[in-house]
């Protein structure tokens, strides 16, 4: 869907009003109200999102045309730390949040970007060859978002603020795969070891949040991450309907040794098909992409960062349709951070 000038004329005053009311997208009251505020979005936009959510016509939903003032936006931050304060993109962030809240509940990870709900996706100097979203010279390998965790989101969403080099996000839709040519039964078996990805490692977090209770819970989370790295849990790669399955895999972070010959062959067949069906999505400023994390894998092609304030800059949200499913991992029913 492409937003029209009439849509922006309706949205802009509402977004400016909300941006004046809240200092940050991380405001607990804004996050609590977001599902109600989402009802103020244009009706045809809500219908479009609901058709995507319920009918699953595609693994990718793209909303384009949101107005972004490049001059007001200013330089791309050098790091994600602190970028949520005084954000020049707060009106666009609020639009992104409201669209996401029409699909489900947004949530964050204690082990990612210091427990923030909305993440910055931007190149960080020194991460060029690291398998993490802040790299640049290395491809970000295709994957299911947070594939290792039982509370992974239903959707991972990206909003583009800058992409001057037209860097491609790559996506493969499970609907494009030929399941009849794959050993689906083998891929449904819990025989595949999935490791936590690098973005959840403690070296990518601040040493302390300043809150002793939060720091204690976060240390527990990092200990669990380390235990899953030391003793990977065996899980299936496919689940759901065997004729039109959902998938969860992150080959870069999977321990491939010790698998049976059948499991290895089935996994390789799936990966080969995914590689053949990947397609480029080049996000433009104002684009909001919602990727079905059950029905797609995604990654990003490499690029050369300049670190001069002009680099690619995206925002990212994780969305779940079942916040209660992670209750054992959250300190309170209305807490959105998984520990």
Outline the structure in words:
The chain contains 8 helices and 16 strands. With 339 residues, the chain is an alpha+beta fold. It has a single domain (5-338), classed as 4-Layer Sandwich (Double-stranded beta-helix). Strands 1, 2, 3, 5, 13, 15 and 16 form a 7-stranded mixed β-sheet that branches. It has a 4-stranded antiparallel β-sheet with strand order 4-14-6-12, covered by helices on one side. Strand 9 and strand 10 form a beta hairpin. Helix 1 (5-21) packs across helix 5 and helix 2 packs across helix 5. The relative contact order is 0.22. The mean pLDDT is 95.
According to CATH, what is the class?
Alpha Beta
CATH superfamily: Clavaminate synthase-like
Question: What's the shape?
Answer: globular
Class derived from helix and strand content:
alpha+beta
Mean pLDDT: 95
Residues in β-strands, percent: 15-25%
Could you describe the largest sheet, including whether it forms a barrel? 7 strands, mixed
Quaternary structure state of the chains depicted = single chain
Q: Roughly what percent helix? A: 25-40%
Number of separate helices: 8
Measured on Cα atoms, how large is the radius of gyration? Answer: 20 Å
What is the fold-level CATH name, i.e. the topology? Double-stranded beta-helix
- Low-pLDDT residue intervals, each spanning 5 or more residues: none
Helix and strand run? HHHEHHEEEEEHEHEEEEHEEEEE
How many strand elements? 16
Quote the distance from N terminus to C terminus.
35 Å
How many separate domains?
1
Judging by the overall fold, what is the CATH architecture?
Answer: 4-Layer Sandwich
